[in-house]
Amino acid sequence: KHHLISAADLTRDDAVMVLDTAQELARLADRPIKKLPTLRGRTVVNLFFEDSTRTRISFEAAAKRLSADVINFSAKGSSVSKGESLKDTALTLEAMGADAVVIRHHDSGAPHRLATSGWIGGSVVNAGDGTHEHPTQALLDAFTLRHRLAGSGDGVGRDLTGRHITIVGDILHSRVARSNVLLLTTLGAEVTVVAPPTLIPIGSEGWPCSVSYDLDAVLPKTDAVMMLRVQRERMTAAYFPTEREYARRYGLNGERMATMPEHAVVLHPGPMNRGMEITAEVADSPRCTAVEQVTNGVSVRMAVLYLLLGGAPAGPAPSAAPAT
Ligand code: CP
Question: Which residues does the annotation say bind carbamoyl phosphate (predicted)?
Fold first, then answer.
């Protein structure tokens, strides 16, 4: 495959290959000199039209740990603010020899446009487009679940077959929810989305998951719960739930977390609204994997760049020779 635009691009075997490769790269990078020489001489461009902390930094760290040259482009402070189009921006990057373009954009579909336009010859990786998809977030969430649930119950193999995963919150505006529903079900999990009726998208009946409005009914049967931020910046004021009412019905607090099975974990993609969808008590508890997800994000993004730019899948391991 040349691009990663949607979690739907990945078959079960593709997804397991990315996760296995990420695991192998994490093992190789777990030493004082973290760099591998694998992408030496290649150029990765981070093209961010929308704010990001975790995704931008971890793609940069991932590319650097593979010894690629990294160009960071932020629309703020660039000629985009003078009206330059996506096409002209892309042609400029192409002229600089980008082997991969990692794009975050406020418009759903912008990465697809970039991948199919012919404006650039390199690989395109979707780092989050509008309310559409965020496939590397879903991959790092699956990596975290595979790791955290491996020791529980009857164990987890290379996929997530039979696991019950609950995604809670602003499903309507969440690219993280869309990509996770697609990827986690591809990996064999049974996914339930939980939200107020106003934050469930029209058309979600066609998604490969169950829908519930009752968080308390779902929690005792879940292996993992993923809490999502309410994305006020994508809502008109009429949609805003009140913080107190939302937290009372859909927020995860210590009392609710205690109703989950003992092995069950809490994921959050970040950024968090502490006090709204998650209390500080839950966010800071050992059951919450938010920080671990960020660490895993670097390994997963290393695997994505490595595989897209021509590396061999896990098995014949990437060279462990330290970069000079
Ligand atoms: N989870 C995530 O995409 O975070 P950022 O917006 O900080 O990249």
Answer: 54-55, 104, 134, 137, 270-271
The pLDDT value recorded for residue 323 is 46
Q: Of all atoms in ligand 1, which is nearest to the CA of residue 127?
A: 3
Domain of residue 49 covers: 7-133+293-308
- The CATH number of whichever domain residue 37 belongs to comes to 3.40.50.1370
Annotation: binding site: 54-55, 82, 104, 134, 137, 175, 229, 270-271
* Ligand 1 pocket test, candidate residues 48, 51, 55, 293, most atoms within 8 A of CB: 55
The answer to whether the CB of 5 falls within 8 A of the CB of 135 is yes
Contact 296 CB / ligand 1 (< 6 Å) = no
| Residue 280 backbone dihedrals phi, psi, to 5 degrees | -60, -35
Q: Which residues are annotated as a binding site for L-aspartate?
A: 82, 175, 229
Ligand 1 contacts CB of residue 126 (under 6 A): no
Of the segments 68-82, 133-147, 299-313, which one has the largest average pLDDT value?
A: 133-147
Q: How confident is the model at residue 294 (pLDDT cuts 50, 70, 90)?
A: very high
Percent above pLDDT 90 for the chain: 75
Give residue for tokens 């897209």. Answer: 308
Catalytic site includes residue 54? yes
How is residue 226 written in tokens? 């993923």
> Number of folded domains in the chain?
2
ipTM of model over 0.95 = yes
